[in-house]
Every structure is written in C-alpha cells, then in structure tokens.
Write a structure and sequence with these properties.
By secondary structure, the protein is mostly helical. It contains 7 helices and 2 strands.
C-alpha cells in the first residue's frame, strides 16, 4: 500500500507539476515516468487476479484498495513500465487520503504536465479508468 509522501493531495499535485517542469522534452518525462514506476511498493503475486484487474486498460493493471482508519490506501502494479509510472502518480495524489478528500480532488496535474496530450489514446483511456476506479472506491467507502 502506498503511503502519502506529501501532506495533502494538492501538495502532491503541486510537487508532481514542479518535478515534470524540470524536464525539457517528453523523452525525458517518459524516462522519469519509468523511474517513478519503480517506486511502487512490491505487489504480491497472489493479488494479480482477474478480480483485482483494472478494466479499461490495454496494459495489465491490478489494484487493491484498503480502508484503514478512515483512509483509503491503494496497492497497484502493472506489466508496463510507463503505466507503472502513471499508477505511481495517481496513488501519490490519492492513496492514504480520506474518501472525502479523494472525491473532492480533481486530478489537475494531468493537464498541468501535459499527460493527456502526450499519451497514446489507449494509455489515456487506461489512466482515466484508473482515476475513475479510485473515485468510485472513495464514493463507496
């Protein structure tokens, strides 16, 4: 389960925007995404089931939510290195937050760093599915 590294979801988004602004082109940003994906905590093989598989992604993505002490924690993994980086970004913003904060947090970092313009259509759809899953989980927590 990914614990938050920033105090608030907004602070996490601001940090992401600041980090991506450091890179001058998208080849560097893709490499950074790959590096971020390596920061995901280990995901147990036994969790890689169809039940935990995110629908709507071309790549395989597994995600497991846990409500603990009023906060939603997420563990996730992907078979794609770039998608793993996208998963890391989403969990950095949302994992470890209360359902109310998750529901109230719009993922402004996506447009702010240009993700929607530079990802393939299938990756954009998959990332949208991931963000929708997180929101849906918060709404039903």
């Amino acid at each position: 389960m990914l614990q938050p590294t920033e105090a608030t979801a907004d602070a996490a988004q601001d940090a992401i925007v600041e980090e991506f602004a450091f890179f001058s082109d998208w080849s560097e940003r893709y490499q950074y995404l790959i590096d971020l994906g390596k920061r995901l905590p280990a995901f147990p093989e036994e969790w890689k089931t169809e039940q935990n598989r995110l629908q709507g992604c071309q790549s395989k993505v597994w995600i497991v939510p846990e409500l603990k002490d009023g906060h939603l924690l997420f563990a996730a993994a992907s078979d794609s290195s770039i998608v793993s980086g996208l998963v890391y970004l989403a969990l950095r913003v949302y994992s470890g937050r209360t359902p109310e904060i998750i529901k109230a947090t719009t993922p402004v970092f996506v447009d702010a760093i240009g993700l929607s313009r530079h990802l393939s259509a299938s990756r954009n759809n998959g990332f949208a599915a991931l963000l929708a899953f997180i929101q849906h989980t918060a709404e039903n927590a």
